[in-house]
Predict the structure.
Amino acid sequence: MEHEFWHTRWANKEIGFHQGTVNQYLREHWSSLGGYPEDTVLVPLCGKAHDMWWLHDLGHPVIGVELSEVACKDFFEEGATSAKVHPGQPFTVFRHDSLQLWCGDFFQLVPDDVRHVRLVYDRAALIALPPAMRREYVAHLTAVTPDDLRILLITLDYDNREMQGPPFNVSDEEVHNLYGADYHISKLVTQHLAKDDPFAKRRGLSSATESVFMLTRKD
Ligand SMILES: C[S@@+](CC[C@H](N)C(=O)[O-])C[C@H]1O[C@@H](n2cnc3c(N)ncnc32)[C@H](O)[C@@H]1O
């Protein structure tokens, strides 16, 4: 997606993807990664997800990467916390304690930026991107992060004749195609969205599933 698409969404507050609470899959499955509190967590395309406060409260240093300055400002304002702002190129960094939001383009990250990262939390990042960008996203993530990376990935799958993304449908097969060469993949859970799920109803989906994967970088 073009950057302008997301800037417009944030400017117009069209952010139906934002959950006002901590994601239930994160709560239930984060421990499966077996990380330590001191492990740094990268949250690509992070929006203003409350999930980052939850990860920070566990003790993790957190680096969220987000294009929208609106999202970065809202995140700290809504958390009733002030952040120190370090303007820069290609990222302006908002920092509170060990929680940092890097405002800029994920594809501008270089290995040195994320050398301490051990864990990644991907909710609505991969599925926010159209197919060709998903390949670039996975390639870039793998290229810049250290070799011992573990990822908690949440996907959404549906019949794409019923709806156009974002969020895009990402099948289990695609997860294997994208990540299988470099990561061991285990599926932790698949859940059908309820028939009366507000998102499915709004977007006219007859059925949809969400799945949670643990990805562990191969040696
Ligand atoms: C669907 S939202 C998901 C946000 C968050 N993960 C959540 O769970 O609420 C996708 C976010 O990615 C951001 N984004 C899109 N392209 C980006 C890029 N190239 N670099 C950084 N952020 C990007 C958008 O501004 C948007 O906030």
Q: What stands out?
A: Residues 6, 17-18, 45-47, 49, 65-68, 71, 105-107, 123-125, 128 surround S-adenosylmethionine (CB under 6 Å).
